[in-house]
Amino acid sequence: MPDRVVVVSKTPFRVTFAGGGTDLPAYYRKYGPGACVAGSINRGIFVMVVENFISSEIRVSYRITEDALRSVDDIAHGTIREAMRLLKIPSGLQIITATQMPSRGTGIGSSSSCVVGALNALHAWRGDRVGPRQLAREAVRIEREILKEPGGIQDQYAVAYGGLSLITVDRDDNVSVQSLNVDHDALESLNDRLMLFYTGVERSSSDIHSQQAVEIEDHLDEYRRMRDLAYETVGAIERLDYADIGRALDENWELKRRLTNGISSSRIDTWYAQAKRAGALGGKILGAGGGGFLFLLAPPERQHDVEHAMKTAGLERKSMRLDIEGSSIIFEE
Known about the structure:
Layout lengths: L5 E13 L6 H7 L2 E18 L6 E4 L3 E5 L8 H9 L6 E7 L10 H17 L5 H15 L7 H8 L2 E6 L5 E5 L4 H8 L2 E5 L6 H10 L5 H19 L3 H15 L9 H13 L3 E4 L7 E5 L5 H10 L3 E2 L10 E5 L1
Parallel strand pairs: 3-5
Antiparallel strand pairs: 1-2, 1-12, 2-5, 2-6, 3-4, 6-7, 8-10, 8-11, 9-10
């Protein structure tokens, strides 16, 4: 039994600028490399691991509470169950999660943030000190190999490492995380131009990713161009060329919405068109698409107009800033 009785991790959510979809194994293992530009944000998920009073039982609390469980096998929450199995922790714990933003089916990488955060907290409770690469690899193993949930690999690395990065993956599953050359002042300047709106529409990313994987060979030109846009976005961000960043976001979204049904909709198309008319330079629906959060780039002097247009359409702006922090342990006792 470790000396620790309470551990709390904080793991950010993420936004993706370009290249999302090229990190799907069905694409990069055959046509790779895949490449994405992603950034962690200052909102995320907290995972608390607490010693349980009854050492033979497990308690897991998220949207619901699973109490007095006698075995790891009895845990319904898949990622927490598999994280405990992977780390060979049999019982005697309470695991509690709390999120700072709407997270179910909203495209901000919440499922990966949860498993990375759970792994980080459980490792710390055990007395381990692990780095972001191990956390990301273990999270990919749980989500993609053990649970066989469809999706890519960028989320796990983006939230484990934190910061603004180019994430590439080759055909042999080798992942590289390259931090963009952006200092504090440049990051703040970029943050001043980013906007996030909650559409109120939740959707299943698994359904969209499964269909997308089946149709990849019909859209190879779109995937190759989205991969190229990821590299172009790196240069645009590093030189703070906001017009080019906006153009890359806009082109990436136009390509992505062609990949399969469900990524966009008439409502989403209308919202995006309204945002651009109001002054947004570009944007996209985050994650698999279909709903969740609308991510926009707009000059500071046009943001009032954009926010008014979105509010009129029924979309609520959410506070968000890019942050350098990846998954971290913020409390131990």
